[in-house]
């Protein structure tokens, strides 16, 4: 007897849970992601209670959620998803929403008007533990993201960085991966990861994205050097 393709397999590739309060948006996201064989949509929900319940049951790799759900109580919902890899899809491409989303700890941000191929690209980057911003909004992040106070150049935390740690901070700001940094400094990726961890700890930064933004605001990175896409945290390529 022939066995149907995929029988006995609960999911394939990257499991994605969709959430939005508009069915037409959910349909569009399903259609875009269906083109990528490495991604499986495991469900779609319309409200916050159902979203939280399905995350517990389905354990998706990534949650792709409409900004309208996250804006409830000033992105409190996003903070409830701490530890979950979240990509925001939004019709409102304002600076205020962009800053609020990143400040709330989401891993990716994508306007709904973005080219279709950007959505699988964002899902893959975030599923690998990274962060994703499309090229056309990256510069806005560096210019308008205000959650990180600009420290005094003589602040003890900055002065505590070694010369190599300062070089690593600048490289992060340029969007370089651990592999690229290791190649430049002729050290192992493990050594680079240790440097990155110490930089984050000393400067009390949440992740690689905040480190990149701080490097920009400190003037360690020029506009020409700013990455088109904020690279994944700890990515090896």
Verbal overview:
- This protein folds into 2 domains: 14-144, Rossmann fold, CATH 3.40.50; 148-237, Response regulator (Rossmann fold, 3-Layer(aba) Sandwich).
- Helices cover 46% and strands 11% of the residues.
- It is built from 12 helices and 5 strands.
- The protein has helices at residues 23-33, 48-58, 67-70, 76-80, 95-103, 118-127, 135-144, 156-159, 163-173, 178-185, 189-203, 208-217, and strands spanning 14-19, 39-45, 62-66, 86-90, 108-111.
- It has a 5-stranded parallel sheet with strand order 2-1-3-4-5, sandwiched between helices.
- It is elongated and about 50 Å long.
- This is CmnR.
- It comes from Saccharothrix mutabilis subsp. capreolus.
| CATH-level-4 superfamily name of the largest domain | Response regulator
**Residue share in β-strands:** 5-15%
Main CATH class of the largest domain? Alpha Beta
Helical content (DSSP H or I, runs of 4+): 40-55%
Mean pLDDT: 78
H/E element string? EHEHEHHEHEHHHHHHH
Structural class: alpha/beta
CATH topology of the largest domain: Rossmann fold
Task: Count the DSSP helices.
Answer: 12
Which shape, going by the Cα principal axes?
elongated
**Strand numbers in spatial order across the main sheet:** 2-1-3-4-5
Compute the gyration radius: what is it? 19 Å
Domain unit count: 2
Low-confidence stretches: 1-10, 226-237
Brief sketch in words of this structure:
With 237 residues, the chain is of the alpha/beta class. It contains 12 helices and 5 strands. Helix content is 46%, strand content 11%.
């Amino acid at each position: 007897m022939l066995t149907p393709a995929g029988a006995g397999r609960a999911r394939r590739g990257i499991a994605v849970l969709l959430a939005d309060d508009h069915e037409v948006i959910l349909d569009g996201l399903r259609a875009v992601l269906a083109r990528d064989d490495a991604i499986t949509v495991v469900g779609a929900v319309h409200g916050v209670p159902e979203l939280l319940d399905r995350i517990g049951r389905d354990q998706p790799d990534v949650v792709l959620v409409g900004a309208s759900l996250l804006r409830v109580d000033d992105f409190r919902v996003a903070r409830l998803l701490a530890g979950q890899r979240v990509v925001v899809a939004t019709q409102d491409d304002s600076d205020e929403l962009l800053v609020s989303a990143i400040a709330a700890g989401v891993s990716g941000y994508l306007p709904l008007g973005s080219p279709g191929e950007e959505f699988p690209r964002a899902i893959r980057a975030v599923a690998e533990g990274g962060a994703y911003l499309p090229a056309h909004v990256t510069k806005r992040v560096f210019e308008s993201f205000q959650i990180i106070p600009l420290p005094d150049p003589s602040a003890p935390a900055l002065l505590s960085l070694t010369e190599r740690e300062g070089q690593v901070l600048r490289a992060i700001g340029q969007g370089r991966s651990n592999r690229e940094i290791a190649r430049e400094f002729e050290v192992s990726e493990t050594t680079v990861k240790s440097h990155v961890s110490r930089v984050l700890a000393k400067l009390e930064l949440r992740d690689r994205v905040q480190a990149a933004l701080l490097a920009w605001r400190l003037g360690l990175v020029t506009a020409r050097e700013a990455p088109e896409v904020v690279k994944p945290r700890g990515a090896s390529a």
